[in-house]
């Protein structure tokens, strides 16, 4: 658009891509958000220093802060978003519910007045009827949100939700509403100019969530009919018009299995998942936010809003799905995103070598695909996820790939309970089909033989060594031995690939993969495949279709010796309370010598604005305290020791 841009950054983000992408950059403070990105005076000073006459607030931080918008207005600086009154009204979830009812929008039964303490919360919960959900009055994004199915759960949920809300938003007010069982989370994108012209741009399906935070979004929704789309869209427009809304915004609903829908909240900002709407409508939402803030009119009618194809977005998080999706911090030792092409979009704020810190949300990137239909968009996402390589922090790519292969997801049969229902004991990749395991073994064998052939050509090796490379190998996966027979390649053809016989299946693998490349693109029996790969000890670690598989390839005679090796037993850690994630020890509920019983709270660890209460699993006595409140913990660090 020819507009010069200014980036603001904290010390933690000094080298982030957005800093170098802009024409100028201004430091606003140290890493903690309340000393940098949430300091309104620092942002106003950055505007004054650079002469900026408008601010786009992005996704989070002050993007829905009426005080910030008011301060910009007083300074004569345009806020690229709605006016102050709309932000203030919709930002208060209690007031927003009242406004929705007045605008004729269906709302969930609940109590939207301030709740002073846990006793009042229990009384209200009993009146509404369990299960109920507590939500932060000033927030969103899953922070300060808890479900309670009993009085005891509600007391605990009130304490934790209030604490999280205070930490994330500086406002500990929570409200209670009826929890809708098996709901769909559907949101409607709206766009409005300052001349009363308001559009809805279709819906987004956001039901695949963990910890009440979105993981997969798609447009359109496989659940929404044309009639339901129109009804929800008209309700969203009615609410937006009732507050004289301007700019882009999102009205979020929950829908029950029968298609009855209820107002959830309105986000008065750009959504992370706006990319799927941009793909399916062809409209650039950020550009329109800027144009509307500059006083331009929308030049499209509701009947002319395009709806083309299907788009899916997957959020790449620094977290460990195998440990309850707990956040992971550390350095991105290696980071390779899938290559952008038609129908693929990668939005990322990190770079190889960057530090994923405990100060901000754990999102590394978001990957969005677009195709003519849902099945094709899912296939594109599978290929993109297989092409991502991340090393240095735990991540959820395997989980996302597993979702793309899940039968219920493929059928569109899911709700916001999907992750809990499919993975009640935590995420574990589905067992690989024999043909998929054979593909993985073939890839590991190709890698191994590339190393062997390279060694045979290195100066000083035994003469003609390459001609005597064995043709019989053994691959070991999870303690199981698999025979691998290789057809001796023609002279020079080992650079192209190999023909294998694995578990009685013939596999012709061809690849230009070079040693050290973290992504192996190949064809197996002429079908394209992609794997992320790395050396791991004596073998190879491969990621494919949501599975992480370690493979060791031996010569036949060496494999016989490997069968005799004893298994190493894991150490007994039952006498220790160990931090399940990196973060700060927010509180410690026990002291040395104190006796604890199952269910007693021991400590609270906070990271990336989420609190995790650690509780006793058995009766014991505290022998030693190894960490205190305020300490920064590494994953696996000992907090307490038991007798």
Report what the structure shows.
- The protein is globular.
- The strands form 10 sheets. An 8-stranded antiparallel sheet has the order 13-12-9-10-11-14-21-19, sandwiched between helices. Strands 23-24-25-26-27-28-29-30 form an 8-stranded antiparallel β-barrel. A 4-stranded antiparallel sheet has the order 5-8-6-7, with helices on one face.
- Helices cover 26% and strands 32% of the residues.
- The protein is α+β, with helices and mostly antiparallel strands and 643 residues long.
- The longest helix is centred in the last third of the chain and has 24 residues.
- It has 5 domains: 83 residues, Rossmann fold, CATH 3.40.50; 70 residues, ATP-grasp fold, A domain (Dna Ligase, domain 1); 239 residues, ATP-grasp fold, B domain (D-amino Acid Aminotransferase, Chain A, domain 1, 2-Layer Sandwich); 129 residues, 2-Layer Sandwich (Glycoprotein, Type 4 Pilin); 67 residues, RNA polymerase II/Efflux pump adaptor protein, barrel-sandwich hybrid domain (OB fold (Dihydrolipoamide Acetyltransferase, E2P), Beta Barrel).
- Helix 3 packs antiparallel against helix 4.
- Strand 9 and strand 10 form a beta hairpin.
- The protein is built from 16 helices and 38 strands.
Structural class: alpha+beta
Beta-strand residue percentage? 25-35%
How many DSSP E strands?
Answer: 38
Number of helices in the DSSP assignment = 16
Q: Whole-Å distance between the termini? A: 66 Å
CATH class of the largest domain: Alpha Beta
| Mean pLDDT across all amino acids | 91
The CATH topology label of the largest domain is D-amino Acid Aminotransferase, Chain A, domain 1
Walk across the major sheet and give the strand order: 13-12-9-10-11-14-21-19
* CATH architecture heading of the largest domain: 2-Layer Sandwich
Low-confidence blocks of residues? none
Biggest pleated sheet: 8 strands, antiparallel
Shape: globular
- Classified in CATH, the superfamily of the largest domain is ATP-grasp fold, B domain
What's the Cα radius of gyration? Answer: 27 Å
- Helical amount: 25-40%
Number of domains: 5
